[in-house]
Amino acid sequence: MDDKELYFWRGPLPETQALPPDAAPEPWGETRVVGKPVTRVDAYDRVSGSAIYPSDVILPDMLHAAVLTCPHAHALVKKVDTAGAEKMPGVRAVLKDGMPGTNVPWFQGRGGFSSRLFDPHCRYEGDEVAVVAADTIYQAWDAVRAIDVEYEVLPHAVTVEDAMKPDAPGLRDGGNVPPAAKPYERGNVAEGFKAADVVLEQTYTTPCELHNPMELHGCVAKWDGPRLTVWESTQGVYAVQSGVANALKLPLANVRAIGPYMGGGFGSKLETGKYSVMAALLARKTGRPVRLFYTREQVCRSMGNRPANTISLKVGAKRDGTLVALESRAVGTGGAYAEDGTGGVDYLIRELYTCPNVRCENSSALTNAGPQRAFRAPGHPQGAWALESLMDALAARLGMDPVELRLKNVPAASQTRNGVPYSTTGLADCLREGATAFGWAEARGRRPAPSHIKRGVGVAAGMWQGGAGGPPSTAIVKLFPDGSANLNMGASDIGCGTKTWGAQIVAEELHVGLDRISVEHADTGTTQFATPSGGSKTVPTESPAIRSAALDVKRQLLSMAAEQLKVPAADLDLRGGEIVSKADPAKKLGVGQVQAFGRRGVLVGVGYRGPNPQGKATNPFGAQFAEVEVDTKTGEIRVLRFLSAHDSGRVLNEKMFRNQVNGGVTMGIGFGLTEERVMDRQLGKLLTANLHDYKMPTALDAPADKTVIAIDPHDTFCNTGAKGLGEPATIPTAPAIANAVFHATGLRVTDAPMSPARVLRAMAALKPAPAGRKGEE
Amino acid sequence: MDDKELYFWRGPLPETQALPPDAAPEPWGETRVVGKPVTRVDAYDRVSGSAIYPSDVILPDMLHAAVLTCPHAHALVKKVDTAGAEKMPGVRAVLKDGMPGTNVPWFQGRGGFSSRLFDPHCRYEGDEVAVVAADTIYQAWDAVRAIDVEYEVLPHAVTVEDAMKPDAPGLRDGGNVPPAAKPYERGNVAEGFKAADVVLEQTYTTPCELHNPMELHGCVAKWDGPRLTVWESTQGVYAVQSGVANALKLPLANVRAIGPYMGGGFGSKLETGKYSVMAALLARKTGRPVRLFYTREQVCRSMGNRPANTISLKVGAKRDGTLVALESRAVGTGGAYAEDGTGGVDYLIRELYTCPNVRCENSSALTNAGPQRAFRAPGHPQGAWALESLMDALAARLGMDPVELRLKNVPAASQTRNGVPYSTTGLADCLREGATAFGWAEARGRRPAPSHIKRGVGVAAGMWQGGAGGPPSTAIVKLFPDGSANLNMGASDIGCGTKTWGAQIVAEELHVGLDRISVEHADTGTTQFATPSGGSKTVPTESPAIRSAALDVKRQLLSMAAEQLKVPAADLDLRGGEIVSKADPAKKLGVGQVQAFGRRGVLVGVGYRGPNPQGKATNPFGAQFAEVEVDTKTGEIRVLRFLSAHDSGRVLNEKMFRNQVNGGVTMGIGFGLTEERVMDRQLGKLLTANLHDYKMPTALDAPADKTVIAIDPHDTFCNTGAKGLGEPATIPTAPAIANAVFHATGLRVTDAPMSPARVLRAMAALKPAPAGRKGEE
What we know:
The first copy, chain A, is α+β, with helices and mostly antiparallel strands and 777 residues long.
């Protein structure tokens, strides 16, 4: 199964008698540790610098590698002359197409087609041409510059429009436009629009975003005889293991991927990079460890992006707000190699509200630009930008409160996905409780003093198609005779606090302090299986396995203690390192006194993720409220106040829940206000390949006043009751801000990001509207 | 439970209903991988230098530590002035007695009494007084030399005789002589000797040996907040974990001990060293990692030794050779701190032969010398030196063949231990098959040409009281979807090939090539529980757990495949990555096609060591045959030819079996011919504190002609049928050589090592004996 399947795991787990479903006890009632706002268990390591990230790994005799990439948007490599480079000081190995070992087929980009490791057909500015390993990184770069390449430059197309032209340069045989997928359809949209009292239609555009994780993409590779170890900055060590093993035809057991700390990914590090294979080949050739990290510019060009989308959306509603028809047409490009540039874009349009007649059509084209990769809620922020902007316009047209319009279309009890009921739906509560806490009604009615700085409030809702867990997961908990414990799991902690809530679950079940729990994770050599951390599925996938493992070890301990104390195991409880009889508290044993340790030394509990609930769908939901200030002279937008209300099931750590939401909101602010990959259409080159030209929001752009509310509808789909959070947090942010901008100014900005220039342009085109508080559509 | 209990694990495992005994399948019949002479799986890593031993660990910002030790055999520390040292360049921390954190009670030496970390009462030349951490090791040593210590020098005693004198300087309150243990007694020796036709009596002495492992003792310690990681050259990471955690009052989960490679131990690295605690304290004080390895001289002084023993042995026999009485008196010293200087010395005397009347008495005294530690077969080589020399003398006196005399006293079927039958006894077969293969009868009858260089042959037998497994063990086997596998176990590979035979067992059960198996071990953070590797119990303790883990994962795989193929699981077999129906070979599935992987990603099997067989004792046995050349002019002895016949149950790897035996024999040659710790009685100082003065045998001292025979009596005491080997191999070596020297020269050397000087001295005292082939006692 490839990374895509692991990331978007949908199907039910195979049912079997041979492996009976694991005990899935009821979710907790009152908890002692779980849910509490405890500090991260690795906080000290991270802030003290003692945490070793893959880019910190320095091995004896390690070589440094640098990659030569194609400077053209589209070219054929005719000749690569490395003779000069190979003679340069410190250079130990050079690899290029056609050299032994380099003929590795490579799957680049999701939904894409294969290239070679060094493909002579370069399809974007950034395709890899050669790689050098040298004693120092400076020597490696000097040698890269000394490589002489003869290119035949081809015409290029970096926009969907250019790529779809009949005479567009072909990125592959069969053309740039993949066969269109069947449009999604339910009901009959034509009939729906006929029955509508109001029909609105608008075209929205969203920017191409670059992930820009703090740590660059790369790895260190080292061979010990036939065994390869790769320290990689990745969201999933098992994905790296299988990717590298497949490419180099190695047994899985002989590839050890290690990445306990990693500096962010947001979806761009779900896949194995060509760099891992290059580093491994260079290390094998030289007999020395090799470090290969891409530069910031190379990461911006090659390591994925969120496709830009153009979404034409049409909505039909009854006078009372009831939706009767939704129709969308989305266009996008996944760049080179990645066929699908619209994945996930229509999900909210189909699923967020109950609407009998829906039709969604998507089309993509390949372009001579960096291939897309999964990016925090693939497609969803784009879809939300269109849907939630248009819902706001509909409310204005109908003269309804935007919260009321949404509640009207969310059933009070539960939503369904194509008729399958959700295990729980907290969307209505997110909207209601969020509005109350935000002071929505009061804020909407407020009449500020006249000024060129306008204030307004907006709301948007969202859901995420993943976040329900599902892929397999194994966790092991070791209990030491002094009652302290070790958690062993494969999942990467990509910054969300995976280690911490994992330790909290163990602490809860074994009634032991967090300071007595150690965690080992993200190492295919020593830790258990996990799919990559992403898709907001890490919590709902790993947490039930961790809880099961802790309960397994507790069961062993208590059943042994029961025999020693001559009481039923059900009568025993584990309390602060002691096993105590509930009936007769005088009957007790210290953990270390249990003879199990004489038989085992250390007790080992194994836990797996249990099966999904039959006949139920699961999703996390959320609603966000923004208050903004718009400077109508400069076009600048400031987010003053933000409230996020999320149904992600049970919260495992209140503090990390808030942090996670606020991080997602900040990313949503980037999507809505500042971030945009800019390509030069004529040259086909990336103009925003660094953090100066590509504007990421900073702490100064985040709202000072932030509130996070958790709606826990007591989901029981897994034994911890937790649903995903990472992606939901970023989905409704940008339209909530855009709707607040409309409320403030009467200006409806349909193109994200809402940069000052774009706001001023739109403002100039705007007809003056009375008081700026009534609809203008 | 302390290290001693773990090492000499005797008691039965606690019985319980709660943890049912693991399935203990029958030992293998024919095997495909197990037993075969495959090359070590880590051979490349070891010879290429890519293996990282603890002394290779270099961490960023690491400090280097050096220890100041007491230069006197016995002294009170009155004052330690570190002011000058602390001001020296690069010095980051100095610790001495009385400073915060240093008041750590310490258990030093087996069977000993506690000292403090820096004890002001220094009881031997080598007791630790202070420690310095500096930027470089040179700066650390300069600072150690700058520490000003005021000692009150006390009288000392480094020999048992001196220590037992009424006015001997006391090492502790209560005197130097611990209360005598009750002598071992069975039958009535006085009656036995009365009934004997022949009685012989002789006093034997054996040298104090130093372990001298290739890698020195030490560790690197690093803190991450409250968690401590120790990379230590150790035989048991879990022993280090518990030792350090106890000393520093840390939860076990917060101490991670790592030591996958280590350069030899032979018993001296079963315990946690003071160095680990010092390194941890220095690292905590400075906030930097600290490397602390003792020097060769410090290791020779402080890191243990095999006590020198004086053994008076008396044997009574019938004319036909039947033993009727054995009586021994052994004296020894464990040095400072270690009370017992005779542990294990009488075991062979009590157990090797069936003799109705036996009495053994041991006594020890504390001396001002380095404390003893377990040393490859504690006590047994000493006991064998006495018993097997005297048996040879008895054979000569009776005019019997020495092999025949031994066979006479070993029952043909099985021995018993105090009436409890052994699961199997291969001793008679070792003697018989060894004699045949050696050409014993022919070699004994050979009459070489007259020369000052004499040739002769000798035999000796042995057994080892451990080697039966027993302590708890857990192993985990992970099966990847491509059929490759990972073995996870806690045991250290102390040079015996633990990783390799572990991988062979997995390869056997999962029918997969050794090149598709990786092994992780010896890390309390990531691998399973194991007791220290030692006592020849590693194979019989770990191998059944590994086999059980492999069978557990296979069971899961086959039961799932059975469901898919709709056949009973018992009908299925795993063959080269495929699951095949025995009844219908057309029915098959690739490992990766089994849906179990969809549910689990990676299959995990857990195995434990099963219980010992009820009502049975287990021991490994052996017999060795030597052919030597004695230069009667120089006193030099050369071992020309050596045959070892060992019953260690099933052989897991034929090549490593041979290597292990030959290594043990070489160590036995050192014991018999060259090694001896020499103390200056007047100064109380060690004179042989380096490899120039302390003579270890080299490859040139090992016999060129070496044969190893395995006697496998098909033991079923555990599911792999394997008994221990490491220690048995070294037990009979020295007396086999001594007996060959007697056969060659008629000279009976009773003091080991048989150095040229000692041989010449004995030769000078020898009355000429006719042809040197008849007994002289």
